[in-house]
Amino acid sequence: MKIQRQAAVMFASDLPRTIKYWNEQIGFATHGTFLEPPVFAIMERDANFVMLKQLGKEDAIIPYSERNEGLWNAYFWVDDVASLFEELRKRGAVMDYGPCDQPYGVREFAIRDPDQQTIGFGQVLNTANGAPP
């Protein structure tokens, strides 16, 4: 037995707008949406997933970075962080911080979604620090 996939789950204040951002600025395909207007979506890129859930109008999204500085709402390990950074920059993704080497052995950058949630992307430089290869 093994776990085959995982997905981050993030809220959206305006799900159609957030789906469009994940499609156009981050390059994820819409794997599926549920109900009309959509209240839930599954996004996919390179067999990696994120689930998006429409948040009720009475609720507020508080990005993790507002609760704990530097914390992401979702994180993806990649094999070429420099190329992905350039791709997302050209697509118009809102950059949080540019590529930098972290003490935990990863070169990473982060973007923000329409609700100011942080999405990190990192390439492992040194597996001795416990980062997944």
- At the first level of CATH, what is the class? Alpha Beta
> Any idea of the CATH topology?
2,3-Dihydroxybiphenyl 1,2-Dioxygenase, domain 1
Roughly how much helix do the residues carry, as a percent range?
10-25%
**Oligomeric composition of the shown chains:** single chain
The CATH level-2 architecture is identified as Roll
Question: How many DSSP-defined strands?
Answer: 8
- Quick check: average pLDDT? 93
Spatial extent as radius of gyration: 15 Å
The fourth-level CATH homologous superfamily is 2,3-Dihydroxybiphenyl 1,2-Dioxygenase, domain 1
Shape: globular
Strand order of the largest sheet: 1-4-3-2
Intertermini distance: 21 Å
The figure for the number of domains is: 1
Helix/strand order, N-terminal first: EHEEEHEHEEE
Structural class: alpha/beta
Low-confidence runs (pLDDT<50, min 5 residues)? none
> What share of residues are in beta strands?
35-45%
* Number of helical segments with 4 or more residues: 3
Instruction: Profile the largest sheet.
Output: 4 strands, mixed
